[in-house]
Amino acid sequence: MITGIHHVQITIPKGEEPRARDFYCVVLGLKEMEKPASLQGRGGFWLQVGGQSVHVGTEDGFDRLTTKAHVAYAVTDLTVWERKLEAEGIERIKGIPIPGFDRFEFRDPFGNRVEMIQAI
């Protein structure tokens, strides 16, 4: 029986951890969590998101702009996120409406699709 989601993983190009930490930890305000020692040599880092985590792995040779795969972050004030990301020069992409939710999408600095979603 599946009881929930433990984590999701996105990827960034190898060696881009400092820029990714700046975006995910500073711009989005997510908290980095320590990876187990057995995995630290593989690159990347982990982020705490509520009771789950997002694993930021490293991978070269992949065009992230060609996929619909994404992480959707549940937020409490979508307008604040729209303004914050606009101030960072990040283009907002209007998503297809979903009943009961307001949302928008954008691409992170590495091309990963990201969604911000708020229940209404």
Helix content: 10-25%
Contiguous helical run count: 2
**Which oligomeric form is depicted?**
single chain
User: Would you tell me which CATH topology applies?
Assistant: 2,3-Dihydroxybiphenyl 1,2-Dioxygenase, domain 1
Sheet-strand content, in percent, reads: 35-45%
Query: How far is the N terminus from the C terminus?
Result: 30 Å
CATH H-level name... which superfamily? Answer: 2,3-Dihydroxybiphenyl 1,2-Dioxygenase, domain 1
Strand order, largest beta sheet: 1-4-3-2
CATH architectural grouping: Roll
Ranges where pLDDT stays below 50 over 5 or more residues in a row are: none
Provide keyphrases for this structure.
120 residues; alpha/beta; 2,3-Dihydroxybiphenyl 1,2-Dioxygenase, domain 1; 4-stranded mixed beta sheet; 2 helices; globular
How would you characterize this protein structure?
- It contains two helices and eight strands; from the N terminus they run βαββββαβββ.
- The longest helix has 11 residues.
- Strand 6 and strand 7 form a beta hairpin.
Structure, briefly:
The chain is α/β, with parallel strands linked by helices and 120 residues long. It is 18% helix and 35% strand.
List the helices and strands and how they pair.
Blueprint lengths: L6 E6 L4 H11 L3 E3 L11 E5 L2 E7 L11 E5 L3 H10 L5 E2 L6 E7 L5 E7 L1
Parallel strand pairs: 1-4, 5-8
Antiparallel strand pairs: 2-3, 3-4, 6-7, 7-8
